[in-house]
Design goal:
Blueprint (H helix, E strand, L loop, with lengths): L18 E7 L14 H12 L4 E6 L12 H14 L2 H4 L4 E5 L3 H9 L1 H4 L4 E6 L6 H9 L3 E6 L24 H13 L4 H4 L2 E4 L8 H9 L1 H6 L6 E4 L5 H7 L4 H18 L4 E6 L3 H6 L2
Parallel strand pairs: 1-2, 1-8, 2-3, 3-4, 4-5, 5-6, 6-7, 7-8
Helix pairs in contact: 2-4, 9-11
Length: 293
Amino acid sequence: MTLKIQVMTPFWPRDFKPLLMGVMNLTPDSFSDGGLHQDLKGASDKLDTWSKQKRVFPDFGAQSTAPMNHPISFEEEWKRIQLFFDHFKQSTFNKFPILSFDTYRPETMKSILTHQKIKHFTGQVVWNDVSGLFDDEVDELLTGYDNLFYAYTHNAVRSRDLTPRHREFSGQFSPDSILDCVTQKFVEVTESVGKETQERIILDPGFGFAKSPQTSMELLKNLPDLIHRFPKTQGWLIGLSRKSVLQEVKGPKNWEQLDKLQEDELKNLMLKCPQRHFIFRVHDTLPLTKSLL
């Protein structure tokens, strides 16, 4: 059974103002908020807050991909998601026009899409896949679910199981070559599918994934150039929130300073790339709803 597109809530705003993807980690070990949302009361409060903020939607993740953490099994990842689903009523999810799920496993995403809470969800769904592997399983899900959008992240791992070990592959990219490497891969992915599917692919440069801080910093510096290499209809997911690349810029020491630096970078990006479709993945949504929207 496929999901239906909700025609009255188009994915991309017509005024080109960005969408904000709020990070909600259902994990005990994520680097900035591990364990925070395993307390379901805390998760409920945050979802209620986000539902009242304009252009904000949640990105649920049940496994940390931070290099210092150990991977978990599909069974454990799905158990965490099921527990979360079971706690909330359908109406909680239907407060949002979009729901996103951060997983590199196709079997997890398929389980999510066939769960009763998502089968009856009235909006659109994003698969936020940081593996960097666009394969037949991705194409199968995009073909089978016509309201599924797919966020493709630039990475360099050789298999999905190696995704949490992405730092081991950072030597494959250098600051001098990163812009062309990312461009080439994005062109390869978007040209490998038909037009209808292509419109549902969102591109994420993958700051920090298989990239040293120096390489990510060079990519950040050239991000407007990268975006201008693609049509204006292309959607972009930019995940800079509390990333080490920002620490390389000016060396902020706490989350508040990092969040302010991120805000400045995103404002600059919007200025240099007007009338583009952006999703900004962030931990603290409120300041950006005030400054960017």
